[in-house]
Amino acid sequence: MRVKIWGCRGSLPTPGASTVRYGGNTSCVEVSLDDGSLLVLDAGTGIRCLGDALMERGITQLHLLLTHLHLDHLEGLRFFGPLWNPNVSIDIWGPPSPNTSLRDRIARSFSPPLFPLDLKDVPSNVTFHDVPREPWTLGPFSITAVLVVHPGPTVGYRIEGGDATFAYMPDHEPALAGGADKPLDWISGAAVSAGADLLLHDAQYFEDEYDTRIGWGHSSVADAVAYAEAVGARRLLLFHHEPVHADASLDELEDRARELAGRNGRGPTLAREGMVVDLP
């Protein structure tokens, strides 16, 4: 299994000289196997460049898995090249809502005054799915989705394939569920993160920043490290970087994560735009 980071910034795109090393595009991750099978996770601004790459590869069928519909995880979809190709079929998966269908919720961002075209104008063949409550398969991938602590319907994903397990939890505030010192069954999202070869997890804040942002839906670096240890993840990749954190600040956050974990080498690392991680 190969995991490629196309966008890892949280909340707001942050282009500029101070974010060159870690990147300024918002959440988008590609998961692929040696046989060419792939999944796309979230549709932040990073999905635009991924779309260009997929079109160059001649991909005509793909699955997009959305964790939730906050704008930083959806804003790139309107500029995703395959969406505008009539020869492409896209299955979009996302968290269910008791009030509005997934299609209708996404359609809001495709309507004036936010965008000049409606979702009905999209020429590709798009099918919308609520994620099921039980694990399901997409080609060679086995996928599990569970609700996690974050404002609004939000899921984390467990993706198994190619003898590896990847857990994707880009927006998560585990401290609101009472911390990580509890049995696994009582830890938010443990059904997708337990024992993963790689856990990608929210670490938007330093500890002192989190103290003034409790309830915003994101994690401190300390809570992310504690969470990874509690669920037994083998590797931790820190994600959803705070928009005001320049590259130098993120270097410090990575150092803090390794200090908390008590190890270097394959200890916690920060996601960087363009990074590729091969698993297991």
What would you say about this model in short?
This protein is α/β, with parallel strands linked by helices and 280 residues long. It has six helices and 14 strands.
SSE arrangement:
Layout: E1 2-7, E2 28-32, E3 38-41, H1 47-57, E4 61-65, E5 89-94, H2 102-107, E6 125-130, E7 136-138, E8 141-147, E9 155-161, E10 164-169, H3 190-193, E11 198-202, H4 207-210, H5 221-231, E12 236-239, H6 247-261, E13 269-270, E14 276-278
Parallel strand pairs: 3-4, 4-5, 5-6, 10-11, 11-12, 12-13
Antiparallel strand pairs: 1-2, 1-14, 2-3, 7-8, 8-9, 9-10
Helix pairs in contact: 5-6
Overview of this protein structure:
This protein is an alpha/beta fold. The protein has one domain: Metallo-beta-lactamase, Chain A. The protein is built from 6 helices and 14 strands. The strands form 2 sheets. A 7-stranded mixed sheet has the order 6-5-4-3-2-1-14. A 7-stranded mixed sheet has the order 7-8-9-10-11-12-13. Helix 5 crosses helix 6. The longest helix is centred in the C-terminal third of the chain and has 15 residues. It is globular. The model has no long low-confidence stretch (mean pLDDT 95).
